[in-house]
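Why do we care about 3D structure at all? Because function follows from shape, and shape follows, mostly, from sequence. That is the central idea of this module. The next example makes it concrete: a single protein chain, its amino acid sequence, and then its structure expressed as tokens.
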Amino acid sequence: MSEARNTKQKKLVLSLLKNSDRPLTAGEIYRLAIRHFPKIAKSTVYRNLDALVSRGEVSQGLHQNGESFYSIAGEHSHSHYMICRECRQMIDFPQCPLSSMERGIADASGFHITGHSLQIYGYCKDCNNKKKN
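And the structure:
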């Protein structure tokens, strides 16, 4: 099998994700990418994201509206977010609330778990306060 190419565009997508304090959608990545490569096509961003997900370098999650979001993958791929329905802020859980359950499931079933995802939807503190006023 041939080695995957690391193009300037692919390196840029990885860099944008690494330097972000939160996961990004493909549209957000595209809007940031055109600052560096004004002629980059949106399809190039999508193609690079697909390749990076396939290579395991990037994790893909799904907003409740069906839009994908992306982040740099860890050794054990999983993500935990609280997502505000109003401002779409994504707040990462401080620790994994599923790790002990995951170990129990793996031990009981013999299933080799390689990752998981947990997303909770609601309203962040600021948006919730706005709704009350």
